[in-house]
Amino acid sequence: MGVRKLVVSLFAISSVLLALTTPASASPIPAHSVPNLYRCSESRSCDIKNADLHFVNYSSVCSYSDCNFVAAADWEKIALHIQPSANLLRGEYKAAHQTFSGGMHMPDLWSYWKLSGIDGAFATKVTTWSHTRGAVQNGVLHFGSMIAALNVRKNSALAIQLGVAETLVVTIDGFDPGGPLVVFKAKTVQATWAQWGSAVRAVWGVSTSTSPLTPPSTTTTTTTTTTTTTVVPPTTTTIIVPKSSVSFSANGGTGVMANEIENVMTANALTPNGFTYSGYSFNDWNTAPNGSGASYANGATYSFATSITLYAQWTSTTPATPFTGAQSTNWSGYILQNNSILTQTSAQWTVPILNCADTGNADSSTWIGNGGVTWTGGGSSGQLLQSGTEDDCLNGAQQDYGWWELYPVNAAQPFTNFPVVPGDSMEASVYQNSSGAWTTQLNNLTTGTSATMIIGVGWGVGPMSSSGPITFTSQGSTAGWTYAGGTTAEWIVEDNENAQTSALNPFANYGQVNFSDLGTNLTPWYLTPDDGIEIVQNGLTLSVPSPIVNDGFTVTYTGP
Fold this sequence. Notes:
Layout: H1 13-19, H2 68-79, H3 86-95, H4 106-115, E1 122-129, H5 133-143, E2 146-151, H6 157-162, E3 167-176, E4 179-184, E5 187-190, H7 193-199, E6 200-209, E7 217-222, E8 227-232, E9 243-249, E10 260-263, E11 268-269, E12 280-286, E13 295-296, E14 301-302, E15 308-316, E16 326-328, E17 331-342, E18 344-350, E19 362-370, E20 384-394, E21 397-407, E22 413-414, E23 425-432, E24 438-444, E25 449-454, E26 458-463, E27 473-477, E28 486-494, E29 512-520, E30 532-537, E31 540-545, E32 553-557
Parallel strand pairs: 9-15, 16-30
Antiparallel strand pairs: 1-6, 2-3, 2-6, 3-4, 4-5, 7-8, 9-10, 11-14, 12-13, 12-15, 17-28, 17-30, 18-23, 18-29, 19-20, 19-28, 20-21, 21-22, 23-24, 24-25, 25-26, 26-27, 29-32, 30-31, 31-32
């Protein structure tokens, strides 16, 4: 393996200090801004241009849990930039023969909207839409906004944000990498994709016109000598057919495959696999990186009902070899031992999709570190400097976040305003910068954000940069802290300890994690099978690393 170049080049620590931005110096966020909104650049994974819209409070018109007109009116505000006043909507509501607490069913709303219009806008087509993340993103980009039915559970985080727990009809205002933006009760809140997935029951896309759809009609005028027939042509409405796409992931392999795009619900054969993976043969496609989702054979037909990502599934062509590494109750991966201080450790991985149906309340973490092991001939500072992602199941739903830790000096510190979701591509480094300060850096390559900690300075989140000083908004100080370095490097999937009892938590079924692009400051360097480590608890092997292939390896969950 060769030395992996760092993603950023660092100037002197004084430059870093000058570039830090603290909350005190940041511009104040307007009171109407969405809490926890991740401010990102407009892209296929970020559409927050409508996040700060103000909406009319319709509490005098109808009961919020019953009035589907409110969602339609808010939809018009977002998609058409018009919004009925409370008095106008009250008139529309009365014309539809609704009472304050007796709203209409959704089919009736669509019929009224098509025939009578709301504030002069007539629905011309209502499309039942998939509620997957990719479909919601494509739908919002296509329609401008969407309407959804949610079943919000009592005492859930989403219920606390919305202020109510029951079946609701809401409007989707946009989305960011963390989740969709939902409009309800004249305000916008941000749900996570996990909250959305557990609450959503139906999603609709609406097309509108300033004229109602009028069926063809025939009128006949008769005189004593002439009969004249006049045909009124129907109103012509142009409807843009929405598209669905399939993205292909090499999932550890190499190569490039373009997205396959078709009209929604237009079945077509999938593009044949074009990826390769040295030491492996292609097996099939799966909607989950670890193979726990729906499978598709090479060249199989896909309905294109929704946009999805398909991950290549590989079978090793290398004969299996007995595991010769070490055992641990909570670490699995590889540990490199060296005779002197290592000044850089790095790697990339994809945030796994946990099988939370299998392990409903459990956790795991994926990280890299320096100095976590004392070994004969190498020594250690007694401290482990590490950074990575926490991937947990909570009541059957997955939650993820980025963190750093200097063990045992402090408990793991989560980075805030640093969204992490399954499928994100992560890159982590632990290194000594040009000024001698020890640094951890966790980059979300999918969102373009970077979470950094510098010993003696602090930690925070900022934009990724390939040149110039590191800049971030400070989330805490490490002034006065020291770290002497370590003689070991680690690439680990871990079963965490309970902070209160020191007992191991239930281990989440993470499927597989592929560590790639492994790097250290040593030239040359290599890992051997004896450097591997597997998790064994009560005689049961739960997690095992593969042999090293192409500067990387895969850790696989083998638990019950």
